[in-house]
Write a structure and sequence with these properties.
The chain has helices at about 5-15, 20-25, 30-35, 55-70, 125-140, and strands at about 35-40, 45, 80-85, 90-95, 100-105, 120-125, 145. With about 150 residues, it is an alpha+beta fold. The radius of gyration is 15 Å and the shape is globular. The model has no long low-confidence stretch (mean pLDDT about 80).
Length: about 150
């Protein structure tokens, strides 16, 4: 991801992204983001459309929704979505932190009036480890991962 795209995200969402996230996204080779989920029978989808977003427009759209939830006190402020699992669960990092933990927000584990932050589970201690987590989860679910 380019520095310009990261700046676009920050400006659109009026946030400052953590340095660890910006560094990771700038330095990440495209091979991981080029992976496709193979559902079989000729159906596949790029991995970056779900688990780990790599396109500024998608990141902005998803985080705009989360900001709206924050305004309704459904979600605590200060979290940023890096992706989702396609079933309403989000993968988040905490803004203002430099440790790089990735959290899972399970949408089935909260009550409407509660803050989501009570239901966060650490799934990875770094973005690099999160890549490994994603690959493990895909293998557990029986999805093939292929390069285009």
């Amino acid at each position: 991801m380019t520095s310009e795209a990261l700046t676009q995200i920050e400006q659109a969402l009026n946030i400052s992204l953590p340095h660890f996230y910006k560094r990771f996204m700038r330095e990440q080779d495209d091979h991981f983001f080029d992976l496709k989920l193979d559902y079989g029978e000729g159906h596949s989808e790029p991995l970056h459309t779900l688990y780990f977003h790599h396109e500024a427009e998608m990141i902005i759209r998803e985080n705009t929704i989360l900001q709206q939830w924050s305004e309704k006190n459904v979600m605590a402020e200060g979290f940023f979505s890096i992706g989702n699992d396609g079933h309403g669960n989000f993968f988040l990092i905490q803004l203002g932190q430099e440790k790089g933990k990735v959290y899972l927000l399970d949408h089935e584990e909260y009550e409407e009036e509660e803050l989501f932050v009570k239901n966060l589970e650490v799934v990875s201690k770094s973005l690099e480890r999160f890549k490994q987590y994603v690959i493990r989860e895909m293998n557990k679910l029986g999805f093939g991962l292929v390069y285009p």
